[in-house]
Amino acid sequence: MFHAPYNKLVEKSFARLYLVDAIRRYEESGVVDVRDRDLEPWIKGGKETMGDRELDKVLKGKSGGVFKSKLEASNEVSKRVGNTYAASIMMGICSLVDKEGGERGGLKPGATVGIFSYGSGAIATMYGLRVRATGGEFTVGRMAGKLNLRERIGRREKVGAEELDMALDCRARMHTKGNDYSPAYPVDRLFPGTYYLVNIDDKFRRFYDVYEGPGAKGGKLCPPVVVREAEEEKKKVRGGDGWSEATAKVTYCMYI
Questions:
Q1: Mind listing the pLDDT tens digit for each residue in 64-108?
Q2: H helices within the chain, ranges in order?
Q3: Across the chain, where does the E strand assignment appear?
Q4: Which residues have C-beta within 8 Å of that of residue 12, sequence separation ≥ 6?
Q5: How many CB atoms lie within 10 A of CB 24?
Q6: pTM for the complete prediction?
Q7: How far is the C-alpha of 117 from the C-alpha of 113, rounded, in Å?
Q8: Secondary structure letter of residue 1 according to DSSP
Q9: Which of 85, 102, 210, 236 has the largest CB neighbor count within 10 A?
Q10: CB of 228 within 8 A of CB of 248?
Q11: What DSSP letter does each residue of 201-219 carry, written as one string?
């Protein structure tokens, strides 16, 4: 399992391991293994390996089958969610448990998982996990049942790019607002059990609550009162019905 900012990087990292193994086989035996003949120019050190697209293509073809069998389950969620940065490895573990845990797959007691976590080139960590039979409630199968990731991801809502852009712009402005702040985002879009920020007080203490209402029901990312104010503002400036994206963005952020 690899840190996965995007999956092409993971695929290329895994392919590089194939080259390392091929070089090791050559150094141990003194001859290029028959399965590594097409890598001979790089194995014997005659060609530079870094940034060589021809080599990348060869390695991808040779390692593709093993990559799919060993990493597909842990990469599934990151392919659908994107880069979660520091949470990437934890998300990969969740993805693996969800797909291969319990009776669903091969994550049985005794199985081992190799994990490679790296940042921006300054530091990296490699470690292993071993699945154990605990005999209690804390089991891989129970974890998989609680996660239920694929079904939950399948219930996500599609949101227009302009709406997401507005929400992200407002979040950026929030960071300069200072303390004693209460978000105005609607909580009825959240999934049950989701923690959300209620308030940051004048001592910069953060207070959270848990949403226990029904499942996400859709609607705008911004509060209805903000949409109404944006509509009124547009009518004053331009007249007509509806609301301008630019006006709504400014009004929303001022309100927040």
A1: 888 888 888 898 888 888 888 888 899 999 999 998 886 767 888
A2: 7-29, 40-43, 53-81, 88-100, 140-147, 149-154, 161-174, 224-237, 245-255
A3: 112-118, 124-130, 195-200, 206-210
A4: 56, 59, 60
A5: 11
A6: 0.68
A7: 13
A8: -
A9: 102
A10: no
A11: -TT--EEEEE--SSSP---
